[in-house]
Amino acid sequence: MTPPVTMYDICITASRDVELVKEVMHGLYRYLLHPVIDQCRLVIHIEPVGSNCPSHLAAASAASYFSRYVIGMPLSTQPGDGLIWCWRYVQSPWIIHWPETSLLTTPVEIQKLIAPLQNSTKAGVVSLVPKGNEHDSLFRGLPAVMSRRFVASCLPYLKPGYNGEQQLNNNIALRRNMRKWGRFIEQIPGIKKAV
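Structure (tokenized):
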């Protein structure tokens, strides 16, 4: 009997900057998702900010890597909308949250990233940080791998109109909920800040 296929939702909040979206997606595909791309579904929210390009060009650039995707392209947005929108559409047991501000430049095994979450029912998130950074990165503009249960538990506490840093600093209910979950930090030398 064949074991069930593990599925992943790739959540990205991005601007309309087509070149930046291309660069981020190329790194993700080449260094992380290539071996499992058929098991991935893109959930992307293109915010109407950044370049003057139409949102659909950035969305098409990202979606070109995937056979399954969900795309949000609002006409207006406020801080935090993209994260909340993406998290409402997750279905897979594992969510890779990847902000467009992070580039992946070296290979990473996806199984290594989700192993801590698979090995504990209490584990909710693995924060992916650049080598030498030991600070938790969730809601601070760096990538993370999460269980769908963790995302579902946080979603009711997220407030529209607040960016990630504000959610973490000003949302006591969210922080209280997050403390219930085991969190891990994985240092990835190939994570770079996008320019």
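The chain has a mean pLDDT of 84. The two ends are 47 Å apart (CA to CA).
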